Amino acid sequence: MTDNVHDRVDVLVIGAGQAGLAIVHLLNESGVRFTVLEGRSRIGDSWRQRYDSLVLFSSRAFSALPDFPLNGDPAGYPDKNEIADYLERYARVTRLPIELNERVTALEQTDRGFTTRSASGRQIIATCVIVAAGPFQRAIVPVFARRLAIDVQQFDGTTYRNSLQLPPGRILVVGDGPTGRQISLELARTHQVWLSAGSFRLVVPQRFLGRDIIAWFQTTGALRDDKESLHGRFVQLFDPIPGWHLRRSALRRAGVKIVPRAINAVDQTITFTGGQSLDFDAVIWAIGYQDDSSWLRIPGAVDAKGNYVEQRGISPIPGLFHIGRSWQNNRASALLTGVGNDAREIAARAVEFVRAQTARG
Fold first, then answer.
1. For the chain, N or C: smaller number of CB within 10 Å?
2. Residues 281, 152: contact at Cβ < 8 Å?
3. CA neighbor of 20 nearest in space, from 356, 340, 351, 359
4. What is the pLDDT along the chain (361 residues), one digit of tens a residue?
């Protein structure tokens, strides 16, 4: 490994999604030397690669990074491609030093600092590392899914795009969060659809008294109140889904059949809580996502399940930080409208750490 300016930086940011861009914009003004490694070939591809019909629940007025408005009607709702292009434009206009096609394969810690390797062979030594990998890393698929027959097609939140991928027949969508409900409603136009739902989920109107529900969340503090506050804990408990068209009653009217939680599978048969069993031709797992930490090779940085260990974005490993985590500080932490606030705190901590290390020589 050489030790020139290209191989040693003060701060390395891993990921150039919305969280990475927010943090890098602040670092750009701090005077520290930094670089950003992004594994995909284009800024915004984490959005482009999600299902085709994805439209944000927040209007354009609440779907932008600080000081960079989203073009178009502020009261309208952007789709995934609009957000992807917006992030790409943000990176271009602000001239951020982002290296594309640099997927990180290993992060280790030595007496020289954090050593990073990418799939291309690039190696960087950094005093400080900020992980901005985003919330949509590895889709959760239960172990029992392996027992489904090979002719039962399976998809998840990272592989499902549209109804044309699916065979004719009976489709099960597992997971009744926003993604599962949106996909179920979409597929009900062309297929027989069942939605496997868990516990009660609060659904609220998309607009109330002429205002976007996110604006009401902002007014009432539901977006910004700290996760440890009484109000913050209440919002976490119910985690409301915007859009009355996604209520279970609305889904049933559209033809979606609601079944309990899926608990087992054999051949073409899925078994649900309560003992009911049904056969399906395809299954879409929309349970959620988990961290992909296979590259993070620092003892204590991940837990036994492979999830990042952090509190409010701060790892127990000195000099290692995270940004863009769900509920990092509040409901807005993983949203475009809120990630900037968390970014300011993490950027300040990273710069402080770098300067302290520099002062020590």
1. C
2. yes
3. 340
4. 334 435 899 999 999 999 999 999 999 888 899 999 999 999 999 999 999 999 998 999 999 998 899 999 999 999 999 999 999 999 999 888 899 999 999 999 988 899 999 999 999 999 999 999 877 778 999 999 999 999 999 999 889 999 999 999 999 999 999 999 999 999 999 999 999 998 888 899 988 888 888 888 888 888 889 999 998 898 888 888 889 999 999 999 999 999 999 999 999 999 999 999 999 999 999 999 999 999 999 999 999 999 999 999 999 999 999 999 999 999 889 889 899 999 999 999 999 999 999 888 6
DSSP 155: E
Residue 224 structure tokens: 């910004």
Neighbours of 313 (CB within 10 A): 24
Residues shown for the chain: 361
User: Of the candidates 92, 93, 129, 94, which has an alpha carbon nearest to the alpha carbon of residue 110?
Assistant: 129
Taking alpha carbons only, the member of 247, 283, 248, 289 closest to residue 267 is 283
Copy the structure tokens of residue 178: 């926003």
In the block, residue with structure tokens 């409010």: 312
CB 155 within 8 A of CB 50: no
Structure tokens at 111: 């007496």
Place of tokens 């048969």: 269
Determine how many CB atoms are found less than 10 A away from the CB of residue 10.
22
